[in-house]
């Protein structure tokens, strides 16, 4: 299976005022119909191949699930999702042009055949950032895109769970240990979505994955974007073929020296140039000032 290579560079469109207001209020957006049926089939088949390779090698979790980091290097066919024009504008609209993809994973969660031991999984992304940054609320720092390749239009299918508006809350009530039975946070919901929909969310929103007790295998691909002065969690080969300049930026393959990653040379940054060419820089929004 070959990777569909884009025929032209397309940065997507800027976030609308309505989307920005909803995102700032709720901490997440559901974007319907991002992927066509053919795209869903293509990317699902690629993820299935990775899953079968890990199954054959005995590398699945005990519940037969797969949480595979470094999505693009693990499955090169996923590269076009890095900057899919139907949703990529949400990323640079929030963070500006000095960004890269610092964290990614593909997930496959088959139906659970027995009740899973309780574990309180609610968290904010960022790990130690949430312990070591002292502001209240903590800074956004990163955003995440989730592409759904399976039907989670009903609850109970391993849905993405969130507490709307909790991205502005540094703390929620939780158990003394994660294995102590505890209710979901007040206001928690399971986000429903169709295959091909995307969810865009603030890293600070309190979220968790629900257990999948349905008859449908949950499949999704997640990309986390942050400023290029926040370094990648993942080692990346420099010789991946067929990537656009913007995709190379997002994978950390066009960083230059340390000052380059801090944004001191905007004319050398592929996404800055692409937004400038398309008139999408915005003098009224600091991260997008020309």
Automatic annotation (TrEMBL):
Gene3D superfamilies: q2cbj1_9rhob like domain (2.60.120.620). SUPFAM superfamilies: Clavaminate synthase-like. Coiled coil: none annotated. InterPro entries: Phytyl_CoA_dOase-like. Keywords: Dioxygenase, Oxidoreductase. GO terms for molecular function: dioxygenase activity. It comes from the Bacteria. Pfam families: PhyH. This is Phytanoyl-CoA dioxygenase family protein. It comes from Actinoplanes oblitus.
